[in-house]
TrEMBL record:
It catalyses: ATP + protein L-histidine = ADP + protein N-phospho-L-histidine. It comes from Ruegeria arenilitoris. It is found in: Cell inner membrane. This is histidine kinase. GO terms for molecular function: ATP binding; phosphorelay sensor kinase activity. The keyword S-adenosyl-L-methionine does not apply. Its EC number is 2.7.13.3. GO terms for cellular component: plasma membrane. It is a multi-pass membrane protein.
């Protein structure tokens, strides 16, 4: 419960989460070590060196106090400057201290400045432009004294060197870990791609690899895919065989009934035609979405062809302008059958059908609406089940069926990795059927 607020900010992919697990501890360790190094080591060492340098500066200032001119002062401190390896001069009356900018990564300079200001009351300014030179500007009774000496007497040489070294090796080790992690996660990614492709009706080559557990999962996926393919093939062969074997006796019955008087043969012939329509529906259901391979097509052109065929057949169908254009991987024959089934239901239970399409970067939506009685919300789940007939809500006098139309559409959408959603049409007031397929 307490970690729910964190979930929206976490990455979704396995690779990104593994990278976060790998990088986050490294960053934390670097920060902790850097802070501890700066506070516990650099600050103490810098403080000691700054105090030693300030004593030398005070020694120079004490020798200047007895001088009456700037030349006498420089002559008096010349032995000290030689021993302390310093350079000194007085600024002119119109000259101001020159403070050169510091380097952006010189994080120890502010501490040096603060320590010198505390230890040297006469200090005017400090110039620390680099790691080689330090220049102090001090007030004296003879004017502003510019005192220069080696920066290394105030702080350690390149105090950022340890941090830079840690960062360098951290980047190298993290890069090596990333390469190793990518090789370990690649079999999982390939397994996920193969499973996603199979869920959308495509079979892509896949060979198990990686760690033992990943190989076991890959082998289990291949076994499951093979079983599902066998079951689909067996179902198709069984229903196709039954439908094919029953066509012959039905044809003989039709021939026999054609020889009887019309009044006696009419009701029997109607029963035979109904059996024929049942067989055709079973055969369509057995084919499902297994007919044809997925190819890249433009769904707007496919819908235009379907609507044109329906209009030539005398059906009242309207195609709205498509929203979005592009190509999508689909089974054209299966999608055509699904849309034709929806249009057939729409004009059977209503008087007018409206077809529209919305294509985005993430999904394809094909919508068929009608002005019929629609389907109540509590019966929509039952409506997509095979052999389900909702006679009270759908006017059966307008036509008959075996309850496989929506089941076929749902099966086709499912094989494409999508879903069939039923609702109420806002435009026409009847049923609204959406085929939504992810890209």
């Amino acid at each position: 419960m307490s970690s729910r607020w964190l979930k929206p900010y976490l990455p979704r992919s396995l690779y990104a989460r593994a990278a976060l697990i790998l990088v986050l501890p490294v960053i934390v360790v670097l920060l902790v070590v850097s802070v501890a190094f700066v506070r516990e080591h650099l600050e103490d060492v810098t403080g000691q060196m700054t105090r030693a340098a300030s004593r030398e500066v005070r020694l120079v200032l004490e020798d200047i106090q007895g001088a009456e001119t700037q030349q006498q002062a420089l002559a008096a401190v010349r032995p000290d400057l030689r021993l302390l390896d310093m350079q000194a001069r007085f600024l002119g009356s119109n000259e101001t201290p020159t403070i050169e900018p510091r380097r952006w990564y010189d994080f120890i300079a502010p501490q040096i400045d603060a320590d010198l200001q505390e230890l040297l009351p006469n200090l005017v300014a400090v110039s620390l432009p680099d790691s080689q030179v330090a220049t102090l500007f001090l007030n004296t009774h003879l004017g502003v004294l510019e005192l220069g000496f080696d920066r290394r007497r105030l702080s350690t040489v390149a105090p950022h060197q340890l941090i830079v070294t840690m960062l360098f090796f951290a980047v190298i080790m993290t890069s090596i870990s990333f390469l190793y992690m990518r090789n370990q996660l690649r079999p999982i990614t390939r397994l996920a791609d193969a499973a996603q492709a199979f869920g959308r009706g495509r079979v892509v080559p896949f060979t198990p690899g990686g760690a033992v557990e990943v190989r076991a999962a890959g082998s289990a996926f291949l076994d499951m895919r093979a079983r599902i393919e066998r079951q689909i093939e067996q179902r198709t062969l069984m229903l196709s065989g039954v439908s094919h074997d029953l066509r012959t006796p039905l044809t003989r019955l039709k021939l026999g009934l054609s020889m009887l008087p019309e009044d006696d043969a009419k009701p029997l012939l109607q029963d035979v035609n109904e059996m024929q329509s049942l067989l055709d529906a079973f055969l369509d259901f057995s084919r499902g979405a297994s007919e044809g391979e997925q190819v890249e097509i433009r769904p707007d052109e496919l819908l235009r062809s379907i609507v044109d065929d329906a209009q030539r057949a005398g059906q009242s169908v309207e195609l709205l302008p498509p929203e979005g254009q592009g190509a999508v991987m689909l089974r054209p024959t299966a999608i055509r059958r699904a849309v034709e089934n929806l249009i057939g239901n729409a004009v059977r239970y209503g008087s007018h059908a409206m077809v529209s399409m919305t294509l985005t970067d993430k999904s394809l939506r094909i919508r068929v609406e009608d002005d019929g009685p629609g389907i109540p919300p509590e019966q929509r789940t039952e409506a997509v089940k095979p052999f389900s007939r909702l006679d009270p809500s759908r006017n059966q006098n307008q036509g008959s069926g075996v309850g496989l139309g929506l089941a076929i559409v749902a099966d086709i959408a499912r094989v494409h990795g999508g879903v069939l959603r039923l609702g109420q049409s806002e435009r026409l007031g009847g049923l609204c059927a959406d085929i939504i397929i992810g890209r």
